[in-house]
Design brief:
Distance between the termini: 78 Å
Largest sheet: 2 strands, antiparallel
Shape: elongated
CATH superfamily of one domain: Ankyrin repeat-containing domain
Strand order of the largest sheet: 1-2
Radius of gyration: 29 Å
Helix content: 40-55%
Length: 576
């Protein structure tokens, strides 16, 4: 019998092998200053894929508390994924019991067996709870059981959606593909399983080159295997892509290779987190602790403006997210400069500016950075552009500004300039709500945006003023692409109106370049057309109520104008 087969059979039974080194430990090999993938490869090279501990555990068992890249590297290097220790626990059992969602997901992608039972007779599914249980249920028995039972349709579905590894050593010392081939000799049903795995193997190899951060192999595959799909999704159309995985792993070299090979950057929705349904664009994935600033800068450079300025489910822009997550002052400064300061005026769903959030978080370094940026800008930026967005005196270091511009305006002069601009903006909103087109034309000096994020165009739509809407879309078409604090665009509000009003306003808004606004999403990833189906819900009634009753400073007041006659959503809900 082949010596390697003998060794692997001992591995599956948990018995010591001739390659075992009982006294060695992963902890004995220092990480030093290298990536997790590099350290995992060094660990594998030193100890070998057949290394065992006295309790029958493999390197895989002992790396479950490390980053998930260890699993991908070790399994690709030949460490059997389904070995059970002396308690009968596989790595999947331990990961599920620990509630480690990311590790459980990685093991499943490495073709872990959901059907194995420990000494208590438990399968991983039987000890799983919450989101991890939901994750296991989506695998419907797993790829190993599908091959063993000759269920080709199940295997085909799992291969398409679960990023399973064809090359993982899964059972009897065989890889998943080898297992299918051996089963085909005794069960004709397994022949289709072999075909499916053969067809899927190039895709599997590509996926696991990315997951294990094997840059050299990925480069070789992309250069020699023309037509390789780099836009594969895990799980479904909202699941991670290969590029998003590279971004979250902070592997810039792999991200560049994938983008150059055709990975989609724009119009790719991704779940904000694995266990939620709200979605975000790719740039948001680069704004995480542990992801290098260079990665964020790269994705910023290749992603469309509308997507990199989008807000998350809390209404946070990229800058607000960076402050919320405690990212470095240098990255925050770069975000401000990259957006030319415009991001300073964007607020979250609670109406909080970046400066206000930084003050709340005790980030005095960020407050200073923002104040310094504003001070260094021209008078036009500080005394016109900021008040146009109702930035407010509290957000401006008036004393600092007055000393800088002492020749042009003293402290009182600056305050007067701010108040004057805000007053004209408020008068503009009131004229829009009344439908006073002449007054709107007289006051139409800037793209006013109040503390709610509402523009004059938003107000015109919710107060059903078609003539004003038509004038604003003609004179200031850029208003159609300005979102409020919840990332809702004017078209979202139009779709929230009754059908007769919707037809009128949609025709005006979509008259030119409709593709610019039809694909814009709100903070929950919903398109404008989705609001039509939500129209009769309490959520939409509140959205319209807020747009009609919140004043320019975000305070609840009387409506700025009369309710649209005949509107099905005209009666506001009463606050508790």
């Amino acid at each position: 019998m082949d010596n390697n087969i003998d060794i692997t059979q001992n591995v599956d039974r948990g018995a010591p092998s001739q390659h075992q080194t009982q006294d060695a430990s992963p902890e004995m090999i220092p990480v030093q200053r290298r990536s997790g993938a590099e350290h995992a490869r060094r660990l594998l090279q030193k100890l070998g894929p057949r290394f065992f501990y006295k309790n029958g555990a493999t390197l895989l068992h002992h790396c479950l508390s490390r980053p998930v890249v260890y699993v991908y590297v070790l399994v690709r290097g030949g460490v059997p994924v389904n070995v059970q220790n002396s308690d009968g626990d596989s790595a999947l059992h331990i990961s599920v019991r620990a509630g480690n969602y990311a590790m459980t997901q990685a093991l499943l992608q490495c073709s872990a067996d959901l059907g194995s039972r420990n000494k208590l007779g438990q399968t991983p599914l039987e000890i799983a709870e919450g989101p991890i249980r939901d994750l296991l249920l989506r695998y419907q028995g797993g790829v190993v059981q599908a091959v063993v039972q000759g269920k080709s349709q199940t295997l085909d579905r799992l291969c398409k959606h679960t990023w399973c590894s064809v090359g993982a050593v899964v059972k009897e010392g065989k890889t998943l593909l080898q297992l299918a081939m051996s089963r085909a000799e005794i069960d004709p049903r397994a022949i289709n399983c072999c075909r499916i795995l053969h067809e899927y193997k190039p895709t599997s190899d590509l996926i696991h080159a990315v997951l294990s951060e094997d840059v050299d192999l990925l480069r070789e595959m992309l250069s020699t295997r023309k037509g390789c799909s780099v836009n594969i999704r895990w799980r479904d159309r909202l699941g991670p892509s290969l590029l998003s995985h590279a971004v979250e792993s902070s592997n810039l070299e792999i991200a560049r290779l994938l983008v150059e090979a055709g990975s989609r950057v724009n119009r790719v929705r991704l779940r904000e987190h694995d266990t939620v349904s709200t979605t975000v664009p790719l740039f948001h994935k680069a704004l995480q602790n542990g992801v290098s600033p260079e990665m964020a800068k790269y994705i910023f450079a290749v992603q469309d403006y509308a997507e990199r300025t989008e807000k998350d489910s809390h209404g946070n822009t990229a800058l607000l997210q960076a402050i919320e997550k405690g990212l470095s002052e240098s990255l925050i400064h770069w975000l401000i400069v990259a957006h030319e300061g415009t991001c300073l005026m964007h607020r979250n769903q609670h109406g909080v500016t970046p400066r206000e959030l930084a003050a709340q978080k005790g980030r005095t370094d960020v407050v200073y950075t923002i104040d310094k940026f504003v001070e260094q800008q021209s008078m036009r930026f500080s005394l016109l552009f900021l008040p146009v967005h109702f930035y407010g005196e509290d957000n401006l270091n008036i004393t600092q500004l007055s000393s800088k511009f002492a020749c042009e305006a003293g402290e009182n002069g600056i305050r007067h300039a701010i108040q004057s601009v805000e007053a004209r903006g408020l008068a503009m909103f009131e004229a829009v709500a009344r439908g006073d087109l002449a007054q709107v034309q007289n006051l139409n000096e800037a793209n006013y945006q109040d503390k709610n994020g509402f523009t004059a165009l938003t107000r015109a739509i919710v107060f059903a003023q078609p003539e004003v809407t038509k004038y604003l879309c003609t004179s200031r078409p850029e208003l159609k692409c300005i979102a409020d604090n919840c990332n809702r665009y004017p078209l979202h509000y139009a779709f929230a109106l009754p059908d007769d009003q919707l037809m009128t306003f949609a025709r005006i808004l979509l008259d030119r370049n409709p593709e610019e606004i039809e694909c814009r999403v709100d903070k929950d990833g919903r398109f404008p057309v989705d609001y039509k189906n939500l129209r009769d819900t309490e959520e939409i009634r509140w959205i319209l109520y807020d747009a009609r009753t919140l004043d320019a400073h975000g305070q609840r007041g009387t409506p700025l104008g009369e309710w649209p006659p005949g509107s099905e959503t005209s009666a506001p809900l009463q606050e508790e």
